[in-house]
Structures are given as C-alpha cells and as structure tokens.
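Table S2 (continued). Query chain:
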Amino acid sequence: MLAAWVEQLLGFATEALEAIRDDEHYPSFMAWTRERGKLALGGNLAMAQALAPELWSQTPLERRGFACEPLARPGRNEPCWCDSGRKTKHCCGAVNLPGPVPDHLMWMLSLREWKGETLKAALASGRAPAQALLEAGLIAAESGQRGRAQQILEALFDQGDWARLPEQAEPAFELLVDLYQERGFHRKRAALLDEVLEHGPLFLRGVALERLCLMYLDSDDLASAREAFVRAQQALPDSPTLAYIEAMLLLHEGNAEEAAERARFWFRRLSRQGDLDADQLAFLAELADNPGATLAEQMVNSEEDLAEPLASLQALLEVLPTAPLLHFQCNAQGELEYHSTAREDTLHAAWQEYFQVSVDEEAAMGFEADPWPHAGEWLNALCAHPEWLDSPRVVQSLTLALTSRFGSLPWMAPSLFEPLALRLERWLTQLEGEGSGSFVWDVADNAVLLRTGLALVVGMERGARERSRHLAERLLSLDDQDSLGLRELVLDQLLREGRNEHALEVSQQPMETPMLGVLMGRALALYRLERRDEAFDALREATIVNTHVIAMLCADNPRAASAGDGVPESGSRAEAWQYRILMRDQWANTRGALAWLDAQRARLNVR
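Corresponding output:
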C-alpha cells in the first residue's frame, strides 16, 4: 500500500512541479490542479487539492532566488488554503492522505530537473535541504550522471554546518570520494578528506580514515596506511570495519600469521559486545579462520556481474592440467627463441574472438583497450574451453588482465596468480634445459613469455613474495639485458627479507643506465653490513641520479609529487617520492639509517 502511495505521490509531484515552473504563482497552480492535476491521482479532486498546497509550500521558486513561498496552514474553521471557499474541516482537512509527504520532495525533484547555470545557482543559494541533496546526488549517480552527482554531493558536504547532515550521509560521502577518484579530481578528494578529518562528525571521520587507509594501500604507501589505520582505531575503536582494514594492511605488509591472529582478536572482542548482526559476525568468524581466503571471496562476490565467472575461473585454475611443452630453438647468435606453433595460434585465435582486445606490443604490460567491460563473455568462454590456456599468448592476455585488476590485492595471489605461475614455470624449466643462451625480449616470440612473467611477478609481489622473487630472479638470469626492469624489484624484496649480501650482489650487476632504486638499495645493503664508506659512495652515486631522494626520505611529512599515470622522469621529485613510498619503511626500520642519511646531506652538498 505504501509503495503504491509513493509511486502515486511521485507522479503527481513531478507533474505539479512542471505546472509550477510554467508560472510560479499559486492561483495558476491551483487552477491546473483542479483542471488537469487530479488526473494524475485517478481523478481524485479532493486528494489533489489537499496535496497541492503541501507541495507548493516546499517548492523552491527561481523568481525568489530559490526560496520557497510557504502558505500559512489554516485552522479547522478558517477558509481552506486550496481556495475552494469552504472551511478547512469540510475541505482538505477532511482528506486523509495514504502516507506521509516528505518535506524535501519538491527540492529533490527540482535538483533532478535543473541543468547548467540554473542548477549551479540553486546549489550556490545554500537553500537546498541536505536530504534533498543526498537523494538527488545518489539518483544522479545511479543513472550514470557522474558529473551531476558530483556537483550535487559537493553542495551537500560544503554547507559548513556538519550537524545538518542526514543519517544516510555516509554512503554519499563514500560515493563522492569514489567520484573524485574515478574522474581524476585528486586534489578535491584530498581536500574533502582533510575537511572531514578536521571538522566532520565522528562517524564520518572514521569512514574518512578508513578510506584514506585503503587509498594508501592502493598506492603501496604502507607507512601512511598504518598511520591512517591507527587514527581510525582511535576515532572508532569498536567499528567492525577495522578488523577488515587491519587484516588487509597486515597482508599487504606480508604478515599473514599476524593478520589471522588479529582477526581472531577482533572476532572475540566484537562478538562479546553483542552489537553486531548475524552477517557481520559470520564474516568476522570467517576472517578469523582464514583472512586471505575470506578477503578473496569477498572481492570476487563484490564484482556484481563478474562474481560467478570469476568463481568459475578460480575453480578452473585449481584443477588445470599440466601445461604442454613449447617449441624452442637456438639461433645463429646463440640466443634462445620461442616460436608459437600452429595449434597455439589456433587456440589464441579462438580466444581472441571473445577477448577482442589486443596486447600493446610496445609496452612491457598493457592493452590497447580495456578488456574488463565485456569480461563476463571471455571469462565464461575460457572456462568452457580450458585448452585455450595451452597457448602462451592466451596465458599472457589473461595474466595481464588479472594483474591490471587484482594485482595490488595480496589475497588474490593464491587463487588467480599462483596457478598461472605454475604453468609459466614449467615452460621456463623447459627453456633452461635447452641450453645456456640468453633469452632476449625482441627475438622471435620471446616477449610473450617475458611479459607474462613480469605480470605474474607483479601480481604475486604482495601475496606470494618469495615465489614472486624467485620468478623474477629466473627471468633475470634468462634475460641478462633486464628488459623488464626486474632488478629493482628483486633488490627491494631481498632487502625486505634481510638478505643483504644477496641484495648487494644483485645491485652490483652492470647497468646500462644508473637506476635510483638500485643505487639506493646498494647503499642500504652496505649500511646494514656496516660498510659505511662504501655505503656513502653508493649514496653519492644515487644523489647524482636524483638530488631530491635524501630529503624526501628524511622528511616526516613531505609534499607528495605525482607523475600522473606515467613513469616518473629520472631525477624528478616524483621519482624520489615514488622511491619513498616503496622503500622508506625499510630505511625507517633499519636502526640509525635515516639519521645516517640526514647526516650525509652536508657532505654531499644536497638540501
């Protein structure tokens, strides 16, 4: 009954708004109500006349600078406000509406209708009720009007009076943060988060800190993510979301056992409080039992239309048969070559009919277009034809696609990347048995296997670090030109594992072009090995490559320097910032290393 009333009310209110906009004067609106408006209510004139004054009183009028022109509500024995001439008790006062009339309804409908400068002026007036802004913004987003949604939700959170925010403001806040991220408004996103953290209500501050933590995790800035998590814990100590966030943070840091231990702590603590519903408790119980598998399942299920195809892919990869051998040969220069066979080409052609997107042959990792908008088609087709994975080109495309979407999530490595790594590793073992020649990127079809290897190294780097490093080292030994730029990655992982002697060996291998990460890694390894003079020499070489790196590492809260979507330019602040994000935690966790770095600035004459 209530649903039918809401539909009826919306229909009448929408037509009423159109009638009001034609003239913006009450007598004209009431004349419309009696002549045509009643038809929207099935000819019920009494209900139309009872509704019309209510809606008029809450409608923003452009001629009044978007203020309303509310009518004085009459007493029972006073003339009815619908201008019928009868007493209220014998007219609209005798009508019982089937349900309530929200007092922000006409503002919400107006915000849905206005465009361009009119919408901009209405929002700038500051008169729009918070609930109307909230609902109009969410509706715009749901209908795909992302720019309009952003414009309206910005007005919701730019009112200065945080107490006016409706209870449902949390999803609107998260939506606005997502819109800023999707549309590239990174400064606006940062400003909104700062404003909420500084002045917002407690419940929004907790959400902002949680989102900040997730943003830092996405960018691999684990130190900042940890700091944001601690602040979130202080703001909302009993939020069940913190269990989820901490598990993710610990898995990103490579501490799987501690992640399980902390998940069990959160389950015991929050279950004793008795404030959680059955679904929340069930999720925390699963998280306590196996954080990685639980987060992976949640990730897959959150993919909406792709949940079932992704689950089918996981099941397929779990039982994938052993990969067939490939065709390798040695050329006149002593280089090893992989050549795709006719069968492999046929399998790839069948896959490509569904996948449709081509690999960017000029890039180490990437496609000429995004394969995910139609992923349901190629995932289902692949699960129906698992033999396609006998083709390295199909494995390459699948691995690149998975890495682009799930490569930053440690908990996705066991079910998606490790089974594909097993396939590539079999081919590498065969290749290593073919002879001692180098396996160069630009020879024959070699790039297919090397590119697949790079994607797997990246995909497993957070969730299967040891396996990722071993694979990277194998690829480095095959491709002595380091076409994939794996030396820095291997070096970073060795330093994280405390294998400083091995890290030093990797850093001392010849380089055609000096690399900041390799030189700084060499300096750190030598410092840890207490070879300070050699460490200083490595640091001097690093500052020749980038004069900003020491200051960027030593500063507590330096200004971020983004390279956008591209690779940072050598010697730039963006390059130094990227190195800080990746490796500052290793310098900070090495006793005295940051103080030693700071002390060398004068000797090296860098600021």
